[in-house]
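Hey, resending since the last one bounced:
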Amino acid sequence: MYSVSIKNSLFEVEKSKEKVAVNGNILEWDIKEIRDRHYHVIYKNQSFNLELVGLDTETKTVRLKLNNKPCEIKLKDKFDLLLEKLGMNNLHGQAAKEIKAPMPGLIFDIKVKEGDEVKKGDAVLILEAMKMENILKSPGDGTVKAIKIKKGQSVEKNQVLIQF
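The structure tokens again:
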């Protein structure tokens, strides 16, 4: 399932090999590629020209032209929705200040020590929760100032684990 945002409207989109459903309603449409990044769409007996202008994989934004009118679509996949549910959706674009526990669990391993330089995406610790090992990564570049937990310690959701 995907969450799709167009202007201020939000839609739930489910896609399979045979069909696409928007908010639970199966789309009855015909879509044909005319040439690279250009498509012809027939929906409810109306004809539309669709052009894929750009795709930003970092922000998961698709820029289109529908009948020559610009349109921007923001996508969220099941992983984005899970991160949002866990309160970890606003980590992009921020300087690393701290890492909080996304869920209750047990500190399985700590991959850094105080004073270490970390880059965005570096593994900093492993949290065991619900019988799974979850690798927590640095949300940005920074220097580890304080490690507030120890290996084997139980932690609660939103507990500060590491400060930068």
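Residues 2-78 form one domain.

Sorry for the duplicate.
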